[in-house]
Write a structure and sequence with these properties.
The protein has about 180 residues and is of the alpha+beta class. The chain has two domains: about 5-110, Beta Polymerase, domain 2 (2-Layer Sandwich); about 120-180, no CATH class. The protein has seven helices and five strands; from the N terminus they run H-H-E-E-H-E-E-E-H-H-H-H. It has helices at about 15-25, 30, 65-75, 115-145, 150-160, 165-170, 170-175, and strands spanning about 40, 55-60, 80-85, 90-100, 100-110. The longest helix is centred in the last third of the chain and has 29 residues, at about 115-145. The chain is globular. The relative contact order is 0.13.
């Protein structure tokens, strides 16, 4: 699966199709294009639940320019908020807003999009979903509906011990022949 272009959503689940419509009608990915946007999280890999948002990771080199773009294009959206914070020892800009019933979160770091944890976790999770089948997918959804975050749900279902975010990343090397390239 090539997660770098969102066209795959057009042929996906009804929620994926709705996400595609919102992202394209409002030119969200187009506005973010200079920042290598990638849709990540639960919707692309079909483990979303009712309140799942659309997560987009971006790579900025000039933080103030990135913030200005977010303000320019999205500050008029319902519930718009922007924060400048530290996440995993990385300066991070996070913008949240609503469009057509979807909560959208844009997460930007001075780190290439494909190297950010959200993307890396998603491709590992996608492999497990493909290899373990629909019952596993349903188990993940059920755990999420019980309040588990995505990575802890996978760790629980897979019997992984320790920090679920780090444990999932250990599979990158083992799965490298099966995962999309980071390049």
């Amino acid at each position: 699966m090539d997660f770098t272009i969102i066209e795959y959503l057009k042929k996906g689940t009804p929620k994926q199709q709705d996400a595609y419509t919102v992202l394209t009608q409002y030119s969200i990915m187009e506005c973010l294009q200079p920042y290598s946007p990638l849709l990540v999280g639960t919707v692309p890999i079909d483990i979303d639940i009712a309140n799942s948002d659309l997560d987009i990771v971006c790579y900025w080199e000039h933080i103030n320019q990135f913030k200005l773009i977010l303000l320019k294009y999205f500050s008029g959206c319902k519930g718009f908020q922007i924060v400048d914070t530290m996440v995993q020892d990385q300066r991070t800009v996070i913008a949240n807003f609503m469009v057509e019933g979807f909560e959208i979160e844009i997460f930007g770091q001075n780190k290439p999009s494909k190297e950010q944890y959200a993307y890396r976790h998603m491709v590992v999770e996608y492999y497990f979903l493909l290899s373990k089948g629909n019952q596993f997918r349903q188990t993940i959804r059920e755990l999420k509906e019980q309040g588990f975050k995505t990575e802890p749900a996978f760790a629980h279902a897979l019997g992984l011990k320790g920090d679920p975010y780090l444990e999932l990343l250990k599979y990158e090397e083992k799965l490298k022949p099966y995962l999309p390239s980071k390049g």
